[in-house]
Specification:
With about 200 residues, this protein is mostly helical. It has 7 helices and 2 strands. Strands 1-2 form a two-stranded antiparallel sheet. Helix 1 runs parallel beside helix 6.
């Protein structure tokens, strides 16, 4: 069935494939958008399709840093970066954000491919108010599951925002992105003609 992960050989492949699939459907919400449309926040929230992709890329990269136990930015600096990561800035393009997301995805696959044991502990960073104080460590497996959860959550947000932007929905966007032939039951998305 279109949009589903094919059969997987093992847990590692399954986790990475499901994460990859959620990235793909998030990026589909941006298919055919202009930079202006990717910045547009059509609901009461400040979320935009471009901002969500930028945020999820930044979040995934940060979690891989945590899994590698790399030094974290000071809390105040991290909070400023966090707020900025939700916004596609005027100097940024949708294409640049999508390319960055692809780089993050490649890094995640490379890093996870080098970790022998998905049960390896990932110490919980200290001094971050939203991290638990009663847990010493997660596992690499937990980090991957959390990334799947985070990406899927924001893919849903992006679907809603995209529908507000121009009425496009997930399967017609997928049909357009993958060049499906038009059928009686599925018409690939096409951009609306622009007024002259």
């Amino acid at each position: 069935m279109a949009g589903n992960v094919p059969p997987v050989a093992d847990e590692r492949e399954g986790l990475l494939r499901f994460l990859e699939q959620q990235r793909y459907v998030l990026k589909l919400a941006a298919h055919g958008l202009t930079d202006e449309q990717a910045r547009y926040a059509p609901t009461k929230s400040s979320l935009s399709v471009g901002g969500l992709i930028k945020h999820v890329a930044s979040t995934e990269d940060g979690w891989i840093d945590i899994a590698l136990q790399l030094p974290q930015k000071p809390f105040d600096e991290a909070m400023q970066d966090y707020a900025e990561a939700y916004r596609l800035g005027p100097e940024e393009t949708l294409q640049s954000v999508l390319e960055r997301y692809d780089e993050v995805a490649a890094r995640t696959a490379e890093v996870i491919g080098r970790i022998d044991d998905l049960g390896r502990p990932v110490p919980v960073p200290k001094g971050v108010p939203w991290y638990p104080t009663d847990v010493d460590a997660w596992s690499v497996r937990w980090v991957l599951l959390h990334l799947i959860e985070e990406t899927a959550r924001h893919a849903g947000h992006a679907d809603i925002i995209r529908e507000h932007v121009d009425g496009a929905t997930a399967f017609p966007l997928m049909a357009a992105a993958e060049n499906w032939p038009e059928t009686p039951w599925m018409k690939p998305w096409k951009p609306s003609p622009q007024p002259a």
